[in-house]
């Protein structure tokens, strides 16, 4: 066992802040299981687009390694690999199978909790790892998400556009749907000073059909600060984004009062990650809209 404690375990992650938070949650959970092992969270920039680390503030609290492996076009190595002889490709598949079978590496999301003292690498999305409230509270503390002195009286909205209008236009939540939710809340008696829309794209207030005398402000700030601010909103309306998902998760774990609205397209992910019973109104006040 002492020998295995000397082995470094690398937890690999690809993607933006949403994916990095899932990997961070897994890192902390494995660290709890193997407190004597050296564990490194490896953040890769590779993917469809280049993704940088958004949790650098934790570099003095956890072992964080950034790997710049993004390539905008296929490399020579990839071209050579495409013509690799069958025998070498087959051998590579066999080695990968054996490494997974004996848990030296784990690449199956269904087996992320089967990490062993001799496991040296985990390369997954961590989306099947059910989140525990205590872990999320711990993450909130180290990320500076504080709702204990909740004094905000604004209605918070996260509206991500990014590349959705071009790549996935069907995933873009119509502003009229958000306007309908706001009207529903105001008509139900919600009292707020203003509506703050956190977005990567600044639009005109006229794009939201708001009730009279309700001020609206569009904000474009870094992603982590967006999560911090929206965690303090009186009520929260999210869209089809991992950022919206994480705002809902932190509000759920920290028992922040106020309704959470998520679109039908993402509510399933919230339920799967938290294992919450949507029919238990005491567990979480979450509603859906289309």
Structure in words:
28% of the residues are buried. The strands form two sheets. A six-stranded parallel beta sheet has the order 8-7-6-9-10-11, sandwiched between helices. The model is unreliable at 163-167 (pLDDT under 50). The chain has helices at residues 2-5, 17-33, 76-81, 86-101, 133-143, 164-167, 175-187, 223-230, 242-253, 264-274; strands spanning 9-14, 39-44, 64-67, 105-106, 121-123, 154-159, 194-199, 215-219, 235-237, 260-263, 286-289. The protein contains ten helices and eleven strands. It folds into two domains: 2-129, no CATH class; 145-289, Rossmann fold (3-Layer(aba) Sandwich), CATH 3.40.50. By secondary structure, the protein is α/β, with parallel strands linked by helices. It is elongated and about 70 Å long. Helix 2 (17-33) packs across helix 9 (242-253) and helix 5 (133-143) crosses helix 9 (242-253). The termini are far apart. The longest helix has 17 residues, at 17-33. Helix 2 (17-33) links the parallel strand 1 (9-14) and strand 2.
Name a few traits of the molecule.
single chain; Rossmann fold; six-stranded parallel beta sheet; five-stranded parallel beta sheet; 17% strand
Helix share bin:
25-40%
Q: Quote the beta fraction.
A: 15-25%
**Which sequence of strands runs across the widest sheet?**
8-7-6-9-10-11
Which fold name corresponds to the CATH topology of the largest domain? Rossmann fold
Q: Count helical runs.
A: 10
The counted number of beta strands is 11
Distance between the termini: 53 Å
Helix/strand structural class: alpha/beta
Query: So, CATH architecture of the largest domain?
Result: 3-Layer(aba) Sandwich
Radius of gyration: 21 Å
When the domains are counted, the total is: 2
The CATH C-level name of the largest domain is Alpha Beta
Order of helices and strands: HEHEEHHEEHEHHEEHEHEHE
Low-pLDDT residue intervals, each spanning 5 or more residues: 163-167
Average per-residue pLDDT, rounded, comes to: 86
Structural shape: elongated
């Amino acid at each position: 066992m002492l020998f295995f404690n000397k082995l470094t375990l690398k937890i690999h992650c690809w993607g933006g802040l949403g994916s990095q938070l899932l990997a961070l949650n897994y890192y902390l959970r494995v660290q709890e299981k193997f407190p004597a092992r050296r564990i490194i969270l490896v953040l890769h920039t590779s993917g469809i687009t280049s993704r940088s680390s958004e949790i650098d503030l934790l570099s003095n609290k956890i072992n964080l390694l950034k790997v710049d492996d993004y390539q905008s076009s296929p490399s020579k190595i990839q071209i050579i690999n495409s013509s690799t002889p069958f025998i070498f490709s087959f051998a590579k598949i066999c080695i990968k199978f054996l490494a997974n079978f004996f848990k030296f590496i784990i690449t199956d999301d269904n087996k992320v909790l089967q990490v062993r003292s001799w496991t040296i690498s985990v390369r997954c999305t961590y989306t099947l790892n059910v989140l525990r409230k205590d872990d999320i509270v711990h993450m909130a503390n180290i990320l500076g998400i504080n709702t204990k002195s909740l004094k905000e009286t604004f209605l918070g909205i996260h509206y991500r556009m990014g590349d959705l209008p071009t790549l996935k236009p069907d995933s873009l939540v119509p502003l009229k749907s958000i306007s309908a939710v706001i009207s529903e809340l105001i008509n139900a008696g919600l009292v707020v000073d203003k509506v703050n829309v956190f977005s990567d794209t600044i639009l005109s207030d006229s794009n939201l059909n708001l009730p009279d005398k309700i001020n609206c402000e569009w904000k474009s700030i870094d992603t982590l600060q967006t999560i911090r601010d929206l965690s303090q909103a009186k009520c929260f309306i999210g869209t089809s984004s991992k950022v919206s998902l994480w705002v809902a998760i932190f509000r759920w774990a920290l028992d922040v009062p106020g309704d959470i609205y998520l679109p039908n397209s993402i509510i399933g992910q919230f339920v799967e990650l938290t294992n919450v019973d949507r029919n238990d109104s005491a567990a979480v006040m979450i509603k859906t809209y289309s």
